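Friendly challenge for the regulars: who can give me the structure tokens for this chain first? No prize, just bragging rights.
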Amino acid sequence: MKRRTGQDRSITSRWRPATQAVRGGTARSEFGETSEALFLTSGYSYDCAGDAAARFAGEQQGMTYSRLQNPTVEMLEQRIALMEGAEACRAMATGMAAMTAALLCQLEQGDHIVAGRAAFGSCRWLTDTLLPKFGIATTIVDGRDTDQWRDAIQPNTKLFFFETPANPTLDIVDLGAVCGIAREAGILSVVDNAFASPVLQRPLEHGADIVAYSATKMMDGQGRVLAGAVCGHEDFIEKTLLSFTRNTGPTLSAFNAWVVLKGLETLDLRIRRQSENALAVARFLDGRVATLYPGLESHPQHALAMRQMEAAGTILAVTVDGGREQAHGLLDALELIDISNNIGDSRSLMTHPASTTHAGLSAETRTAMGVTEGMLRLNVGLEDPQDVIDDLDHALRAVGL
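First reply, four minutes later:
Bragging rights claimed.
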């Protein structure tokens, strides 16, 4: 009897998400290895010149060059697609490579997009600086206000682009409403789902067309490698995105793909535990200092977040009244939590966005986004939450809070 493997989607699509995260996409060589094989090769050989020609013409299945295909990377792409509920996925070298490719592959001079105000600093650089260089206009809206999305539509609007929850303000966008507005107008929606991962939120189920990731974050989740991914309909991935990535080369290495595959095996366990820890930490901070976390009832969009997400995630934000000086003082007083601009790590990390992740934006843009000088972003890890709380309590006392 033929052994079943993760390559047979008719089988893997029936598996539940936790099973897909461990076994989805797995393809075994003739050696029958249980762990995914790591294929460190840049090219592939052919039995004859005719085979090479047939593969390049798309008439024969097989791989041609690791800028286009690699067995290890392909396993990761299939696994992420299964977890996301997408027809296809394309892995990228970094999260920003994924965001850039998801936008530029389908935009051209004269097009217009609508984007949420709250976003990772580099994503705002894409919408505010890069796209205009190519004659692509952007209207920035408060993503929390559904009417603003509808009102911003122009005859040449091609895309809606947003994060939910947003970095670092934890703004929540109503996925069903906003993606519904886009579909009614014939506009595609691109959602950055890095803060939630497919374990906690699957935007395609709410009407999104394309989902993009920094797989560096929750998917690897242990601060080891850079990676990104774009998920969507097979027609978009194969006919629109693939030609862009083939010729521009934001290629994910086989080794990094293998590391992320290993990370996905524990993603469900990690993100649910870290979400529990984050809620405990947020409850401690709430009332002591201004705290934003979708899992708290005090969050203005708590009900919406809990409708869209299975848990509120690992990230929260706090704001101190003393601006940058007090925020930096709090960071410097930490003994357990690392000062780091990464997120999604199994270790608790804290940063001051205005002077790190969003430092490249103007003060006016940061203010409009809600990124103040007193804001701090905290990624809650897998440590005992009471140890994280004790560290924060110590740091808060050190700066007079």
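The chain has 17 helices and twelve strands. The chain has a mean pLDDT of 95. Your move, everyone else.
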